[in-house]
Specification:
Layout: E1 35-39, H1 43-56, E2 61-66, E3 76-79, E4 82-85, E5 91-92, H2 96-105, E6 116-120, E7 125-128, H3 133-144, H4 147-162, H5 164-170, H6 178-193, H7 198-205, H8 209-224, H9 232-239, E8 246-247, H10 255-263, E9 267-270, E10 272-281, E11 284-293, E12 296-302, E13 304-307, E14 320-321, E15 335-347, E16 362-367, E17 377-380, E18 399-405, H11 411-417, E19 418-433, E20 445-447, E21 450-452, H12 463-481, H13 493-500
Parallel strand pairs: 1-2, 1-13, 2-9, 6-16, 10-14, 13-21
Antiparallel strand pairs: 3-4, 5-8, 6-7, 10-11, 11-12, 15-18, 15-19, 16-17, 17-18, 20-21
Helix pairs in contact: 1-10, 1-12, 2-10, 7-9
Amino acid sequence: MGRYLLPMISVLFSTWSAVGDPAGSAHVDGAPPSKIAVVGAGIGGSATAHFLRQHFGPEVQVDVFEKGEVGGRLATVTVNHHDYESGGSIIHSLNLHMQEFVKVLGLKYRRSVAGKTAVFNGEEVILEETDWYLLDLFRLWWRYGISFIRLQMWVEEIMEKFMRIYKYQAHGYAFSSVEQLLESLGGSGFINMTRRPLSDSLLELGVSQRFIDEVIAPVMRVNYGQNVSIPAFVGAVSLAGAQNNLWAVEGGNKLVCSGLLKMANANLHQAQVSSISPIYSGEALQYRLSFTTSAGPRSEMYDIVVLATPLQASVQSGVEFQDFTPPFDELAGSYHSTVATIVHGYLNTSVFGFPDPRLFPFASILTTDTPHLFFNSVASVCPVNISAGFRRKQPQEAGIYKVFSPQPLDKSQLKTLFRSYYSVQVTEWQAYPRYGSSLGLPPVELHPNLYYLNGIEWAGSAMEMSSVAAKNIALLAYHRWNRQTDMVDQSDLMHRIKTEL
């Protein structure tokens, strides 16, 4: 189970059509853009600024607007002078963009601290990790037959196809929509996976219902706060950590965002963007961004704008689209609210069938999709800075725990999970799209030179998915500006790349 269960916890639509002719989006004199705006400084926005700098060169001015903290959903909270991840926590070893960011920024991998995982059904622990890998493997086979092997082969096949994106992007190819990107990697199969439930795909694969209920559902609950009715491609992204090759950044994952902005020499504006308007001067098109800083309201003109923030009504981005023809409506769909509660206290291990906390062997507990359970997971967490002598607190000691739940925990629920506690810090995230409705995938191009990054989350939400989208948009913006249509939405790319070599 060390390879098959524990890592799975980690790899934590209405359509606007593009308006106008993208091929006519460059300045008539062929001059490079002078100013580019990126709205949002999470991993998607900061990676976009970095890639834009790479492709457009040192002369273009890159302005990044962020109304909150740099890092977005990569964030930390402080308990007893130590920082802990309250948002996106763990990265998979195949996340090549994130790996490259850490390398070029001179950041370090956080030392991992071993810990066992169990699954709780509301009454008892039904699945648990041991110290013996072969015993875990035997238990999985005894309880689920070859379901876990079928799952492993399915995820590996999907990941092998998805890894093609790095070759395509290294050769400069871009895609004008999420559908085009997915189709280039996995054909119609990937597109279909965004439209059918994970449970249906796994049952068709021969995975047992029991395995889905007891292993897959707990992973979906901890990663997305939702059940196995989420689309199959989202589920595959969530399960992509099945090899246990997981890591995080020493000092906090949000350091990647601030580091990328600095390396991009981007101008960071702590500001709320209120509106975007197209401004035409002859055939040339620019955008007026109106925004509010601590000094008051301002506006600036930009040649290219990238929106790296969700535009659904539930997130309340505050951005209005003015004077567009035809007018823009808000994107359909909503984001799922997930509550992360960081508790400094004594875990009530008797809830899980261990009256003596000294006998409780688990660092994290996942839960099945049981109606009366008020939490999705509870885990002992380590600080973002781990010293050489660090050890995880024993269950009988006061430790730091992260609880994921669909709603804020009330006092009675906290008292159920903890014998006593010193502090409670609550972060309520609009964390992921609310999956399951057949809204389609949002567009990448909203208007000539106006791009939307977060649509990729509706195919799969993860740090690396945002990084892939950032690279794609930087390439797409560059090719659109320079009228390089042969680098966008090309078919049979694997063959093209081989002939280029």
